[in-house]
Amino acid sequence: MWTEAIAGAPNDPTGVLSSPERDHVDSVWSEHGQIDVRVLIRNEQRPMDMEVLPRRVDAPSRCTVPELLARHERVLVVGGRGSGKTALIARLAARAAADHRQGTRTLVPFVVLVSLLDDPCLDERAIARLSPIGGVVLLRRALEERRALVLVDGLDEAGSGARRLSESVEAFAAAHPGNPMVVTTRPRREGIPGYARVELRGFVTATLVPQPGTRVVAAHRFLARRDPGRRTSLIASAVDALLERYAAEELRPGAILKSLDLRDRRLLFGSIAWLMHSDRLVELPVESLAELLRWRLDGARWVEGPRLVLCRADEEVDLCRADEEDDEEDMDEDEDEDGDGDREPQGGPLERGAAGDGRELGELAQDIDGTVERVIEEIRGHQGLLIERRPGSFSFADLSYQAYLNAVDHVRIGALDALVEARSDPWSHETIVHAAGIPEVDAAAFIRALLEADRGEAPVATLLASRCAEVAGGRLPPQLRRTIARRLSAVVPPRSPFDVAYLIDDVGEIAGPALIQALGSASPSERAYTAIALGGLRHRPAYGVLVRMAADDSPVNEPIVCWLWDEEQLVKDQVIGCFALLALFDVALAVPSASTLFLQAIERAPRGALDGVYTLIDDQHEERIGRASEDGPIRDVEAVDVLLAKMRKVLDRTGGPSAWKFP
Fold it and tell me: What is the pLDDT of residue 35?
């Protein structure tokens, strides 16, 4: 979708930038690549390649932003509150990062959230501060090579500084031609109602086309925090409610999705989830969806109605035997049981619908392409469980729905052993947990299989078993719960820097929920190490926990080893809040949008903890700058300077930072 004119090969013959550029792109993908990371869960989910109406006669009358960028390198997108502007920016960043990682394009995305700007001015320093992993060196090189994709979200959030920010955006764009830019804003408040216009010199202004909402609210996300045991049942209820809409919606007469009952619809969408999981997809191209549906509607499988149509290839069906049985029963089935001269339709609702329309089942099977087309159009026209995120590409409204339906499909065909084998694959963890919460599953046997399979060094299966035990509820015998608790106690909470490194490097994010749960019974030193581990794991649900831990003034009576810029630091005589601040500082440098959480934490932290963290970071930062000529340029210097200034501002309220060095 990107124009070739603005995406050339990197001019880096020595390979100096290969690692920083790769790390930066990976961080953009990590932050923006997940569908619902940056979109408020209370908002309706919308397609993220929403169409816009450009205000230029030489532009398409209606198109997507990538299509518009192919003709004009600077685009200003105007939309009201909750219209999807932030989701659009996240989507553009994620797609550029994905293309870069795959080697199909070389544009380097830089995301600027106006709400995080200290000064309403867009320049290289401001962009580099919000992209600390790449830093100003990568930014300047990308701009010189015309490979920078600059995405500015929320021009209107500058408040009284909006005019100054707008002028700086115009100046920046003029100074760096050939680099595509997208800026989003709300309409201006002044002017004639309905005619307010927003303009940026050199930009094509485009208005977001209002999108029909899908009324999908991921309530399970916050309800499950209160009661984790209900998570799978909450998601199951949400999925069934979305599936029921196909019956409640006013679809045209004879609509296929409307004629299917709830079980059939669940099987159909479960097979889609299984395909996406198998291919490790969060978006399914319409061609793949059509191929899946076409295979399901193979005429040879219309033996027992749609339930047989929805079976998978690995479910062995003796069609020859079924045909023989059908031949033997033909005379009985053809009899008119009620004497009205009509044969009763057989099989599932789809077959009954076909008979009611006066068509033979074979005729419907022969029109496979037409049937596939109808199903896709019904999904596209009544988006809910599946959403067309961008033209020709579908995804589930929530990734949890995809994982749950995939678990349902595995349970249906008795493939739980495959999930046990996939225990080390983070892509399968959510599916494994949901499988344990499905009532038809023998949760105790499933969890035992996970525990018995945990033969490797990394206790991933034990951590999975702990999460499975939560959703299984009271279906587990007390002895099994005691076994899980005993094995889990050997993993969390961490008791040394070696345990922390082990959790971060060998176990991974699956340890996050168990670490949070273990905080209640952990000692002060264990809580300190837990804070460091949560920060290193980049476990998003833990960010709020770390903000609350920053206010903890419980003393830690033993030296704690932590890491700052990958260098060990021995910290003595501090409180737990100190280690939570250090963890959030590390997160803020890796995930710029999380810097607001760090600012909340420094307002809560005890003064002694904040003073100690400021002194430590300031000293180490000065040493890094002094070694810069030897080790190469420092990429995050602007971001560190801003965070230090924020800490200094809070400390100045009570006399400023101490002169003593951090012990």
Answer: 43
- Whether 10 contacts 106, CB under 8 Å: yes
d(CA 633, CA 639): 14
What is the mean pLDDT of the segment spanning 331-348? 40
Residues 6+ apart with CB under 8 A from 25: 97, 100, 101, 108, 109
Strands 284-285 and 393-396: antiparallel
Residue keyed to tokens 């949008």 = 593
Amino acid present at 280: R
Determine which helix (DSSP H) or strand (DSSP E) holds 158, and give its type and residue range: none
Composition of the chain by helix, strand, coil, percent to 5: 55, 10, 35
**CATH 3.40.50.1240 at 4-208, yes or no:** no
Cβ atoms < 10 Å from Cβ of 357: 11
Specify which residues 74 forms β-bridges with. 181
**What are the Cα distances from residue 623, in Å, to 49, 70, 296, 645?**
46, 45, 64, 17
The string of DSSP letters for 331-393 reads HHHHS-SSSSS-PPP-SSHHHHHHHHTT--HHHHHHTHHHHHHHHHHHHHHS-SSEEEEETTE
Check residue 44 and report its DSSP letter. P
pLDDT tens for 97-140 read 888 877 776 889 999 989 888 888 999 988 988 888 888 888 99
Structure tokens at 61: 């009358």
The pLDDT tens digits of the residues spanning 373-412 come to 888 888 888 877 888 877 788 888 888 899 999 999 999 8
Q: What is the pLDDT of residues 466-495, one digit of tens each?
A: 889 988 877 889 999 898 888 888 888 999
> What pLDDT score was predicted for residue 69?
87
Coil, strand or helix: which one is 199?
A: coil
CA distance linking residue 14 with residue 191, whole number of Å: 54
Nearest alpha-carbon partner for 165 in 126, 204, 109: 126
pTM summary value: 0.69
Question: Which residue from 392, 299, 309 is spatially nearest to 348, judged by alpha carbons?
Answer: 309
Task: Kindly list the domain boundaries of the chain, sorted by start residue.
Answer: 4-208, 220-330+364-409, 414-489, 497-652
Consecutive H or E run containing 75:
strand 74-78
Q: Would you state the pLDDT for residue 11?
A: 39
